[in-house]
């Protein structure tokens, strides 16, 4: 799997931050884009059912299949050499629920959660 690394942070079941790896030191904040697409939300919903912890951190890859890449290549003027480049380009667009963004898949490989401490 070759995609774009994405970290999602949820607090009280709401997405509060979505960061790509960016330069390796400073990630790109794409919270608004991801919030509109609900990308990653199914991971939280399916993992924690009715007892969602206060804080959830999910890491994964945003990918596009080779089959979907072929369809994207036909519908846009730009050519992509591989699925990872197409996924990275789609993540930079404002509306992930349209166009290339509809083809994106989020595959989670790590999650951490915790409860808020009562003072």
TrEMBL record:
Transmembrane segments: none
Domain of life where this protein originates: Eukaryota
Domain NAD-dependent DNA ligase adenylation: 1-112
Alphabetic keyword roster: Ligase
SUPFAM superfamilies: DNA ligase/mRNA capping enzyme, catalytic domain
GO molecular function annotation: DNA ligase (NAD+) activity
Signal peptide: none
Pfam families linked to this entry: DNA_ligase_aden
Protein name as it appears in the record: DNA ligase
């Amino acid at each position: 799997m070759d995609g774009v690394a994405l970290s999602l942070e949820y607090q009280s079941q709401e997405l509060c931050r979505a960061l790509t790896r960016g330069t390796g030191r400073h990630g790109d904040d794409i919270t608004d884009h991801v919030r509109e697409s609900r990308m990653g939300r199914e991971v939280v919903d399916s993992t924690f059912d009715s007892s969602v912890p206060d804080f959830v951190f999910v890491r994964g890859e945003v990918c596009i299949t080779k089959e979907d890449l072929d369809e994207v290549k036909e519908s846009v003027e730009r050519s992509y050499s591989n699925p990872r480049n197409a996924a990275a380009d789609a993540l930079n667009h404002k509306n992930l629920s349209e166009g290339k963004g509809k083809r994106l898949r989020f595959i989670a490989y790590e999650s951490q959660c915790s409860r808020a401490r009562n003072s």
